Automatic annotation (TrEMBL):
The gene is galE. InterPro entries: Epimerase_deHydtase (IPR001509), NAD(P)-bd_dom_sf (IPR036291), UDP_G4E (IPR005886). The lineage of its organism: Bacteria, Pseudomonadati, Pseudomonadota, Alphaproteobacteria, Rhodobacterales. Its EC number is 5.1.3.2. One of its GO terms (molecular function) is UDP-glucose 4-epimerase activity. This is UDP-glucose 4-epimerase. It catalyses: UDP-alpha-D-glucose = UDP-alpha-D-galactose. Homodimer. The keyword NAD applies.
Length: 324
């Protein structure tokens, strides 16, 4: 029978792409989402249970009724700057969400979880690129909630043998190459969509948050990975857990390449043929100067490599969502 996977946050950006990849691999995603930020029309590959992951009874019921045997846990809040201004919202949703999920899973007898963690758990790393052994010293409430969730999973493994994988995403970007789903955040804070909005004339200019960082062009450097590559990694993580892989595994998911804000703006111009007006702006609180992944461990353990994460491909796949 097909494998049933509960996907919390499956109506969101990365979650919906993971559902598509699961369905393509022959599994059935069951989405649990409260639609606070997700979109019901992005749930296309299985049923939608409208519920909050903090509601442990709802998690238990969804697992039991749909006979799910493992979980992809995407649900959570993910605006770094908002977490600095309103930490309670992040502890409540992200840590509270993990509490609800673990309680629901325990009640339903489900012991396999793949968790959406983040490079934000590393804070400002002493050395680049970042490996999984790099000390995790987050500098924002958002990063701290993700680190606490990783630790909660490890504690449940120690106590009850919970099998789990924490996937530390670098910067998720792009959209489904077939155009079925894309990135729709409100407000949109991420760099590539904002650069596309500026190129499309839907925003006056791209604000560049900080031009005096200790980087070659003075702007922040990030590692962008295509959302479809991320989605594929989740299918691989489920396979790992279903094949009996255990323990507390944590893996970086990035392209291994660092690109500055200016380089992104230049790529958007090259790919779309439109100008991206830019405007220097103050630094954004909580932004480390440079984050790049060493993606080697996922390659060694799983043979996983990003395939669509060249920056031109990422921008090309995202552009149609902005009418470009
Ligand atoms: N940036 C701008 N102008 C913008 C938007 C972004 O200059 O209008 C800069 C940011 O300052 C940053 C870079 O572009 O240097 C990328 O910013 P994003 O907001 O696109 O993404 P982040 O690097 O802030 O990503 C972070 C964490 C992720 C986390 C994500 C959640 O690195 O782990 O926020 O939204 F998941």
């Amino acid at each position: 029978r097909d494998l049933r996977v509960l996907v919390t946050g499956g109506a969101g950006f990365i979650g919906s792409h993971a559902c598509k990849a699961l369905a393509a691999a022959g599994a059935r995603p069951v989405v649990l989402d409260d639609l606070s930020t997700g979109h019901a029309d992005a749930v296309r590959w299985g049923p939608l249970v409208r519920a909050d992951v903090r509601d442990r009874a709802a998690v238990r019921a969804a697992l039991t009724e749909h006979e799910a045997t493992c979980v992809l846990h995407f649900a959570g809040k993910a605006y770094v700057d908002e977490s600095v201004r309103d930490p309670a919202k992040y502890y409540d949703n992200n840590v509270g969400g993990m509490i609800g999920l673990l309680a629901g899973c325990t009640a339903a007898g489900v012991d396999r979880i793949v968790f959406s963690s983040s490079c934000a758990t590393y804070g400002v790393p002493e050395r680049l690129p970042i490996t999984e052994a790099t000390p995790q010293r987050p500098i924002t409430p958002y990063g701290r909630t993700k680190l606490i969730c990783e630790q909660m999973l490890r504690d449940h493994d120690d106590a009850h043998g919970l099998r789990h994988v924490s996937l530390r995403y670098f910067n998720a970007a792009g959209a489904d190459p077939e155009g079925e789903i894309g990135e729709r955040h409100d407000p949109e804070t991420h760099l590539i969509p904002r650069a596309l909005l500026a190129a499309a004339g839907q925003a006056p200019a791209l604000k560049v948050f900080g031009t005096d960082y200790p980087t070659p062009d003075g702007t922040c450097i990030r590692d962008y990975i295509h959302v479809s590559d991320l989605a594929r990694a989740h299918v691989r993580a489920i396979e790992h857990l279903m094949m009996g892989g255990g323990g507390s595994l944590a893996l970086n998911l990035g392209s291994g390449k660092g690109l500055s804000v200016h380089e992104i703006a230049a790529t958007v111009e090259a790919v779309t043929g439109r100008a991206v007006p830019v405007e220097a702006a103050p630094r954004r609180p909580g932004d480390p100067p440079e984050l790049t992944a060493d993606p080697g461990l996922a390659a060694r353990l799983w043979g996983f490599r990003s395939e669509r994460s060249g920056i031109a491909e990422i921008v090309r796949d995202a552009a149609p969502w902005f009418g470009l």
